Structure formats: structure tokens, C-alpha cells
User: What shape does this take?
Amino acid sequence: MVVVEEKHFICGVVEGFYGRPWTCLQRKDLFSRMHRYSMNTYIYAPKDDIKHRALWRQLYTKEEESKIEKLVTAASFEGITFVYAISPGLDIMFSSEADVNALKRKMKQVSRLGCKAFALLFDDINPTLKPSDALIYKSSGHAQAILTNELFDFLKRPQFLFCPTEYCKTRAIPSVSKSEYLNTLGTTLHKEIDIMWTGDKVIPETITKESIQELGHILQRKPVIWDNIHANDYDQRRVFLGAYCGRSIELYSYLNGILTNPNCEFEANFVPIHTLGTWCRIASNSFNSNDALCFDDVPMAYLSDDENPNNSNEMTVDLLPSLTVADVASIVLDYNAKDALKLALCDWINEFSRIKKAPLKSYSKRNLKATLVNGQTVLSAIAFDMDHPNRTSETIASMIVDKSKSMQLTIDCISLLAELFYLPYEHGEKGNLLLQDFIWLLKNVCDIYEQPPSKEKVSCWFDRLLHCDQLCNEIYILFENFCKIPNEAILYDLYPYLWDLKEVLLSLQTYVKWLSDSISSSIPLVFFEPCSVESFNLLNVPISNDYIEPWHINYLGGLTVHLHRLLPFKGGYIFLDNAPDIPSSNVIKLRTYLPNDKESLYDLCSSLSANKLSVTEKTFQKNDFAGDTLVGCYISKFSKTLFIVEDNDGVCGFIASVPNNKVFVEHIESYWLSEIKVKYPESESYSYKLPNSPEWRNSSSSHLTYMFKSNVYDECVVKRLFNSVLCVLKTCGSTTTYYQLSNDSHLDMYMKMGFYPVENISEKLIFRIL
Assistant: This one.
């Protein structure tokens, strides 16, 4: 019988992600928040501290020592245990006295800085022993345990944590109960050393009591959960703002602690940390006991995985406006994720109105690069001096948005924000509604094209479209108001994610509205049901599969990419570009041309045509001439594929497209040129120089042209506008689209969008397969 004495329950945060590490100021802010929410432990394990992993043998410099010492002191001031972690597993020789002594020197150096707790991490390494080690040790587990015990004794048995190579069920060989590695740790590793575990998977949707009971039996101690539920370093497009969930408070009695390894973006972690604190407080009040726990008392028959208990007890948050999270947690007997989220949002909204500068005027995850260190590939962010967090190569005098206005974000707004970026395996309520609306509209779009039309079906479809538009508008309002918050730290951390989603929504909404506007069009349409079905199936693959992680294609990109997959244009993912370097609240929309747009469109053409036309001054003074030249022929025959670009100030550009170049050539030659000659008999300069390429003039070929005001010429905006129009052209049956470059065009931008130059012709043509 193995009896495990009760230990102080560890509740805290591990900084263990790939990407730009948090700054010293952010960590101090973290310690304060952790203290406020009854947490007690922080593990220092940033992958970008190269001396933590790749160059673990190197001692810290005096300057680095000073930084670590200040962090240890700051943590202690808030009652937080600072745990220094090191990862020597990439290249350590367990039998090498030099390597063991190097590890001891490193740990001793940190202990002299005031650190009293340590961790040894052997995750994500090749477990095969080197030949010299294999002569001494029975296995990698044996070698790791002996080394860890030696360090534990060398440091005079402080608080110590250990991360195994087999740190989850899917990495246990062949299984948890039969793993020689885990059994070796259980019998060999000193019983006071805590062993960390992520669950059934690297990022499990749920962690069950039964699975932890089984693990505790094998390890002969209660494990500490290293929880990756909010980790986002594996996906550039995802951030997780949902509540801590999928872990019943019944786990509390079978664990020595829970540590969250959260989002790379520091300010994105308010809700994850807040709700984990609520979980721990409620669990502590519900299950705290001084009784020892005996793992042998648990029959092995009951140690199989079972479905997670469904917590149905709910508390009415609205009735507790004056209570803190600690007060509420002390009187609630069960944890409910939705209620915990409400409590967290009530606190988080105060952070948005704080005047707080961003540590760096750049985004955390968008500059990751792979480097080779000691023969090992290391993913790291661009290095920067953490003592000067506001130093950047770009000098930004002020934000574009007006910060003088009062913040307009409400609880409902940030609740919507959280629901759009919820958790790895699920979207929030409104995120799901949005996705289901678009799926339904695309799946049933044929209903509005039926002949004779069904009034009931048409009405139902447009009612659903109205509901979808209302939700989209809520998100656009959220985006605009979010950009005006005084807290630049939150703004820079979350802006790229909200930008991505907003851009995809604009593209998808443009496409769906174009479908609804084209009922009376004579253009034959091709509805891409196979594309939609593929997207639907991706969402319906059972998540119970033991080996599906959130980086599987089912979940990659989250809600943003799930929505983007609904578009018919296949190469569309490359059109998801990085957000602008400086956050802007301006929302640029694309919509189908309407007859009453002609005047404003012609005015735009007149004002922008100085560099586009070469005509006599007398002719140029005629306002209609510029419009007739640039867009008139598209209005006359192809208005259903003519799109207006609008910003907050009105019309700021257009994209004219033609789905069938053969029809376009016939229209120009048989009708439009003669009309123009009648209207402008004095002008001899007007002509349409159509490409001579037979491929261009094919009926399956399309083309587009555009004019924008200067404020639209942000590459990421242009990509999204093109994406929308290419979706339309593909639906109209086009297989290849063309664009004719002008002298000042930038070929690089178009090539990034998948365009290629047409060879062996005199015109500067580029093409894109749809």
C-alpha cells in the first residue's frame, strides 16, 4: 500500500511557451494578479531563454543574474513561489561528470539569487540513451530519475518538480499502466518530487478523475497538471479567452496541483488565470482534507476513462455585484465555467480602460523563426532587451485611433470577444451561431434561385441572412470600439486576432450578399457544394479521437479559418495576411454596385484619374469621361460583378470584374466603343487595348481591374478585397483570372497572392488559377 501525505496544493502559471517571452514588468504584474486570485506558484521556463534549454550549461551573466534576482524578490513579495526550471535533455550525457557538475553549478547560481524551488524538464526530447549512458543506466527513465534525485539532494531537498518525457497518455509507451518509463519514475524518483502531467493528450479537452487515479497509482504520488488548455504557441491564428473548463473539481483530491501554460500574449491570459484561480478556490473549499490518500484503495476496474461529470449547479452572478472572486468562490460548492467566465469578465473590463503602454509595438507570435543551436532546431522570437520594453525599430508617435474618447466597450462586448476566441476544441456560443448561420446560408442558397420560387424558402433564407448580418455588425462594432481602448498592452496583444476574424467576415459576408443580390442576374452560377460539404465534415469529426490535438486540420486556425474554409476560392488561406503594423479602427467594406452609386463612383474616377489617363485638357474636364473610361463599360454590362469599396467616410474605390472575357470582348467591340464615339466625338484618344492572348479571350477566363484611394492600399486589405472578388469569379464559372499591370504596379504583392506573369506576350499580364 502506497500512502501519499497531503501537500500544499500548487496553483499557478508556467511560462513555458515558444515565442516572445514576457517582460520583467509583465511578470511582476502577473505575480500581483496571481496573489489576487489565490495562486501560489510560477515556473520560469521560457523557451526563448536560450540558457534554459539549448545552452543550458552556460551560467547567467551578472546582468542576467540581476534580472532573475529581482523577479524572485517580486514573486516572494506577492507570496508566490518562484520555480526555476531547466531543460538539459536535448544533449546531456547522464554519465558525464562534467555535465552533471555544469547542471549543479547552474542550479546553485540560481539558488544564490534567492530561488528556493526548482524544476527539471525532460519533455520533447529523444529518449534514446547515448551509448556511454546505456552502459550505466537501464533506461532513460532510470537515468533521469537518478540525476534528478542527485540534484534534489545537492540543493538540500527544496520544492522540486519534474517533467517526464512521457508526459501524457498518448506518449506513454505502450500505455500508462504498462509504461516501463513511468513505472521506473514511480519507484525510483524521490517521493517528495512532484511529477507533471498534461493529461490524456498534450492538450486534452477533458481530464478525468479515473485517468488521474490510474496515473497516481503508477507514479506512486499525486501528479501536478501542466495544463495546456490555453496554450496557443502552435497556431498563429488562435488565442484562447474562454474559461478554464473540462476539469471537474473532483480532481482536486487526486492532484498535488495545477499549473496553466497559457497564451503567448500576456494580456490574453486574464480570463485563463482568473478562472483557474476560481477553480482552485472552489475545489479547495469543497475537498480540502487532512486525510492521507491511498491509491491502492482504488480498484483497477474503475480506472478506465469515463465521460466528464456535467456540472449543472449555477450561481447567479448578477445577484453578487459587490463580491470579489474570492468571496464568491468561498460560498460556491461547485465550479461552473460559464459563471466563472462572467466573474472574470466583470474584473477584466476594468483593465481595458487603464492607460497602459504596450511593452513592444509589435505582435507576439508573428515573428517566430527557427534557428539551429548545438545541432538542435530551436523556435524563437526576435530577441530584444527586456530591460527596455518600449524600445523598437519603429518610432510610433501616437496611435491612429482617437484615445480621447471614452471607452465604449461593455461587458457584452468583451463577452462576445471571448466567445469568438474561446477554447481549442470549441467556439463560444456566438462564434458557433455565426459559423452555423454561414453554413446554413451557403448550404441552402439554391432555395432562392429555384424556379418557380418558393415564398416560404426565400423568406426563411433572407431571415437567416438578416440574423447573420446583425451578428456580423456586432463584431464590426466590437472591432471599432476595441481599437479605441486606452490600454495599448491589451490592444497590441489581441488586435491581430480580431483583425483576422474581421477580415474573413467581411470577405464571407461580401460573397453571401453577392449571392443574394444575383438572383435576377443572367450569369450562370456554379454553387460549390463539395467545398461546403468538405468544410462541414471537418467540423463534425468526433473529437473523442485519442490522437487528435488542436493543431489537427480540424481545428487549425480556429473560428477564423473555419469561416474562411466556407469560401469557394481554394487558395484563399494565403489571403489571410498579417494585421497592419499600427492598429486602426477603420473598417473597409466591399459590396455589390447599386445604380445610385454611379455619381459617387464617377466622381471618384475623376479625382483619381490624373495618373491613369492621358487625354487633352479639354476632354479631361468632362467629368463623365473619366468614369466612362475606367468603369463605364462594366456598369453597362457587368454591374453584377462590379464592387464598391467603402470606408467610414464613403466610397473609396472599386473593383470591376468580368467572369467571361469572351463576352467582354464582344461587348466592347460591338457596343461600347460605338457608344463612346457618339458621346465624345471630339476625343480621339479613347480606345480599349484588349490583350491579344487567346487564353485571355477564352470564355472560361475572367479579369479584374481596380482603383483605390491611397488609404486602401494596405497590402493586407487589398488581399482580402481580391479574395472576395475571386470567390465571385469562381462561382461564375471562371477557371483563370487575369490582371493587367500598369507601370507603377508592384508585381511582388500579386505574386504573394498566387499570380504569375504570362510569358511571351507584349502586355504586362498576370494570371491566377481559381
